[in-house]
């Protein structure tokens, strides 16, 4: 059974409904102090590759292709341990995927939340 999986900006105040709070960005969010992040974990390995992240550059017109490429990366064996870990967490409690991205609906966190919910 998969519990609720949501996503939001790391800069927002934590909510009691968050469950486990997992940062899914490859780089640490600018201006965020680690003690203020209220994280359970930071899973850099589940984030898009540096090359893909730079190519995308948060251009919403590139989002469909970014989504396709990121899903291809997630199917790569190098992501299996992090993906398995996230699935295990989601089977035990609600999960909130955190990102620094301003447009969360066009982020890897949104893609990852959908991908995990489908499994």
From TrEMBL:
Pfam families: DUF488-N3i. InterPro entries: YeaO-like. It comes from Streptomyces litchfieldiae. This is DUF488 family protein. It comes from the Bacteria. PANTHER family: CYTOPLASMIC PROTEIN, CYTOPLASMIC PROTEIN-RELATED.
């Amino acid at each position: 059974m998969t519990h609720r999986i949501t996503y939001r900006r790391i800069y927002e105040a934590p909510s009691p409904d968050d469950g486990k709070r997992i940062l899914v960005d490859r780089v640490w969010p600018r201006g965020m102090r680690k003690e203020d992040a209220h994280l359970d974990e930071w899973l850099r390995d589940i984030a898009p590759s540096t090359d893909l992240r730079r190519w995308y550059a948060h251009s919403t017109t590139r989002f469909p292709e970014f989504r396709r490429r990121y899903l291809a990366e997630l199917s790569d064996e190098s992501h299996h341990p992090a993906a398995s870990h996230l699935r295990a967490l989601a089977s035990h409690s609600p999960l909130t995927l955190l990102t620094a991205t301003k447009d969360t609906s066009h982020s890897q966190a949104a893609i990852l939340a959908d991908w995990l919910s489908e499994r």
